C-alpha cells in the first residue's frame, strides 16, 4: 500500500506534496475519456447543436460515446439554467488585472501567486467549465467533479482541483464556441477557430457576441465575489486593443520565457489538450508548424498593441526572474501597477512558495538543429526583445 498523500494549506489552495498513486491515475485515465470533451461539460443543448451544425455533425466513430455524454450534459445544463434561473442582473465590473503570455510561459504560476491575495478574486475550474449555471450549481456539483478530476494537471503535474484558478477563455469558449480552443475539439476546422485568437479577421457581429458572453461571465463572478478579478488566458496576449475598449483602466502583466523552452513545453501541452478535448481525430502531424505559426501571430499582435496601454497599467516580468525571486518580482508588480500594499498577502505567498519547493518541471529531449533554426527564425523578434540567447 502506498503512503498517504500529505497536504500543505497555502492561502486558498491545498498543495499535495507527492504524486498520486498508480491506482489513482489508472482509474481516472480509464474513466475520463468516456465523460465527454474536456471543453464542453458546461455547454447547453442549443450551444451543442449549433456546434454540431457548424461542423456538419462530423464526429469520429471513436468519439460517439464522448458526443453522447456531451449531449446528455447539454440537456442537464439547459434544464438547470432554466429551472434555477441563473441571474441576469448586471454587476459593476471593476477594472480587471489581465495576465498575458503564451501557453507555457509561466502564466499559471503567476496567476496562482497573484490570486493568493484575497483582496482579489478569480474564476476557478468549475466556473469556467459551467459559465451558464455555476451560480446555482457549484456548491453541490463541484464536489462530484472534484472527485473525478485528476489531482495533477496532465501536462505538467501541477496540483489541480475544481477550485484552482482557471482560464476565463474556457468560459467564453463554452458560451459562444468562438475560441481557438474549440479547434482542440474539432480539429478538422482548426483554421476556422484559429481566427478567434486575435479576432482581427472576424465579423463585428461575432465580436459583439463574444463581448456579451465575456461581460456576462465577469458580471456573474463579480456578483459572487464582489472583488476585482485577476484573469489569465494566453489568448488575451493578442487582444489588448479589444480588452482596453471594454476596460480602459484594466491593468496588464506580461510574462515571457525562453522561447525554446516554451516551444518544448507547448508540444506536450497541446498534445494533451487535443487528446482530452477531441471529437474528431486529432491533427498532430503538423503540430510543430501550428505552434510556431500561432506563437508568431500572437506576438505580432502583442507588439503592435501593447503601446496602447496607458502608463502605469502595464508591467513585464521574466519567468526565470519570477522563479528565482518570486517575492521580489511580486513586489515590483504591485509597485508598478499601483496595487494594494503587498505586505498584506506576503505570509500567504511565502507559505505557497515553500509548499512547491520540491516541484520538478518537465524535462524534454533536445530539439533538432532544423527545428531550432525554424524557431529562431520565426520567433526572432521575441529572442531580441527579451534578450534570450538564440
Molecular structure report:
Helices cover 51% and strands 7% of the residues. With 390 residues, it is an alpha/beta fold. The chain has one domain: P-loop containing nucleotide triphosphate hydrolases (Rossmann fold), CATH 3.40.50.300. It is globular and about 50 Å long. The termini are far apart.
Name a few traits of the molecule.
390 residues; globular; four-stranded parallel beta sheet; 51% helix; disordered N terminus; two-stranded antiparallel ribbon
What's the layout of helices and strands?
Layout: E1 7-10, E2 13-16, H1 22-31, H2 45-54, H3 64-84, E3 97-100, H4 107-114, H5 125-129, H6 134-148, H7 169-176, H8 182-185, H9 190-194, H10 204-225, E4 230-232, H11 240-246, E5 251-256, H12 259-277, H13 287-305, E6 314-318, H14 319-324, H15 326-337, H16 346-355, H17 369-378, H18 380-386
Helix pairs in contact: 2-3, 7-10, 12-13
Amino acid at each position: 500500500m502506498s503512503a498517504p498523500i500529505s497536504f500543505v494549506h497555502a492561502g486558498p489552495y491545498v498543495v499535495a506534496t507527492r504524486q498520486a498513486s498508480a491506482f489513482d491515475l489508472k482509474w481516472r485515465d480509464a474513466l475520463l475519456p468516456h465523460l465527454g470533451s474536456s471543453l464542453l461539460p458546461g455547454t447547453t443543448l442549443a450551444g451543442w447543436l449549433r456546434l454540431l451544425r457548424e461542423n456538419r455533425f462530423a464526429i469520429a466513430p471513436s468519439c460517439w460515446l464522448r458526443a453522447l455524454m456531451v449531449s446528455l450534459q447539454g440537456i442537464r445544463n439547459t434544464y438547470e439554467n432554466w429551472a434555477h434561473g441563473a441571474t441576469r442582473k448586471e454587476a459593476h465590473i471593476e477594472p480587471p488585472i489581465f495576465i498575458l503570455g503564451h501557453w507555457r510561459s509561466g502564466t499559471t504560476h503567476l496567476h496562482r501567486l497573484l490570486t493568493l491575495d484575497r483582496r482579489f478574486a478569480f474564476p476557478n475550474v468549475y466556473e469556467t467549465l459551467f459559465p451558464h449555471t455555476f451560480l446555482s450549481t457549484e456548491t453541490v456539483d463541484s464536489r462530484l467533479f472534484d472527485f473525478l478530476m485528476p489531482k495533477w494537471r496532465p501536462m505538467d503535474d501541477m496540483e489541480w482541483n475544481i477550485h484552482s484558478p482557471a482560464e476565463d477563455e474556457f468560459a467564453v469558449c463554452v458560451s459562444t464556441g468562438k475560441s481557438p480552443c474549440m479547434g482542440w475539439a474539432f480539429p478538422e476546422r482548426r483554421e476556422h477557430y484559429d481566427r478567434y485568437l486575435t479576432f482581427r479577421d472576424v465579423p463585428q457581429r461575432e465580436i459583439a457576441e463574444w463581448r456579451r458572453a465575456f461581460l456576462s461571465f465577469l458580471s456573474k463572478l463579480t456578483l459572487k465575489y464582489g472583488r476585482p478579478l485577476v484573469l489569465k488566458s494566453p489568448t488575451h496576449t493578442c487582444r489588448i486593443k479589444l480588452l482596453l475598449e471594454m476596460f480602459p483602466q484594466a491593468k496588464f502583466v506580461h510574462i515571457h520565457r525562453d522561447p525554446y523552452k516554451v516551444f518544448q513545453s507547448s508540444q506536450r501541452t497541446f498534445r494533451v489538450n487535443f487528446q482530452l478535448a477531441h471529437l474528431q481525430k486529432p491533427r498532430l502531424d503538423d503540430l510543430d508548424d501550428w505552434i510556431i505559426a500561432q506563437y508568431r501571430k500572437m506576438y505580432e499582435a502583442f507588439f503592435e498593441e501593447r503601446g496602447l496601454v496607458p502608463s502605469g497599467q502595464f508591467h513585464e516580468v521574466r519567468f526565470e526572474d519570477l522563479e528565482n525571486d518570486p517575492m521580489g518580482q511580486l513586489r515590483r508588480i504591485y509597485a508598478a501597477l499601483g496595487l494594494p500594499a503587498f505586505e498584506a498577502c506576503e505570509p500567504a505567498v511565502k507559505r505557497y512558495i515553500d509548499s512547491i519547493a520540491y516541484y520538478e518541471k518537465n524535462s524534454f529531449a533536445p530539439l533538432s538543429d532544423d527545428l531550432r533554426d525554424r524557431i529562431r527564425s520565426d520567433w526572432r523578434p521575441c529572442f531580441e526583445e527579451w534578450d534570450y540567447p538564440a
